[in-house]
Task: structure prediction
Amino acid sequence: MKLKGRDFEYYISLSIILGLGLVFVILASPNKTLQLILILLTTLFYILFGIVHHLINHDISVAIVLEYLLIGALGISILFFFLKGGLFL
Result:
């Protein structure tokens, strides 16, 4: 699969958003409330960025929006699990 220039820029931008979200969550380490807020904001940006990308490319559908919402919810659930003690109790 070859990436077009716009797709490559999209993936780079998405990687930067998710990477910065991870860095900020790590920097907020002792404050679990702030970490949860940062995780929610990063997920919100992920969902909005994906929807806007598909709107620009004119290939948005209910299935695509649902996919972004479900992947975001899964990510929040997994990270919330680890923030609350997860497997380390």
